[in-house]
């Protein structure tokens, strides 16, 4: 009888975690492009532009965020012009245009740096997902266990908002 109760409790815990995750996903669809959603202590969504981005319309905190730099793939593209904001537990799921299996975070970051289309690289469990602008469905979740490398051009207007 104890074994059955233990199995039941494990299923209940799994179901509860799954439903909470699903609710967070649906709730966080409220944020615009390039924006990042997190749930506050009341489990209500809060949208915030990541470092290096600002609101397209300052009166719409849930709206789209625009880069504070000029993304470009012109012939003078040089990896020396760019650097990264490193963000923990933030992802923009979906929309990957390339996936690689690097041996470490540094290779993931370097792969994005060498690619003029790459706006952010997401590293998790020895895998790297590259994404280009615009980014959609951004979310913060401590269970993600990911590192995001958000690329910005050096020398452009410095990031205004603090990192998430």
UniProtKB/TrEMBL annotation:
Signal peptide positions are 1-24
- Which keywords, in A-to-Z order, does the entry hold? Lectin, Signal
Any single GO molecular-function term of the entry would be: carbohydrate binding
Record-linked InterPro entries: G-type_lectin_kinases/EP1-like
Protein known as: Bulb-type lectin domain-containing protein
Protein's organism: Artemisia annua (Sweet wormwood)
């Amino acid at each position: 009888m104890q074994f059955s109760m233990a199995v039941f409790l494990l299923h209940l815990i799994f179901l509860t975690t799954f439903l909470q995750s699903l609710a967070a996903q649906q709730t966080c669809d409220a944020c615009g492009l390039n924006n990042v959603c997190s749930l506050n202590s009341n489990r209500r969504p809060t949208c915030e532009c990541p470092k290096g981005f600002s609101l397209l319309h300052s009166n719409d905190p849930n709206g789209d965020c625009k880069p504070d730099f000029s993304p470009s793939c012109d012939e003078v593209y040089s990896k020396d012009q760019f650097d990264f904001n490193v963000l923990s537990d933030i992802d923009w799921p979906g929309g990957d245009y390339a996936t690689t299996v690097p041996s470490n975070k540094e290779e993931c970051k370097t792969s994005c740096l060498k690619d003029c289309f790459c706006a952010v690289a997401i590293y998790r469990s020895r895998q790297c997902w590259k994404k280009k602008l615009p980014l959609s469905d951004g979310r913060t979740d401590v269970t993600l266990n990911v590192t995001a490398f958000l690329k910005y051009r050096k020398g452009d207007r410095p990031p205004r908002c603090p990192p998430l």
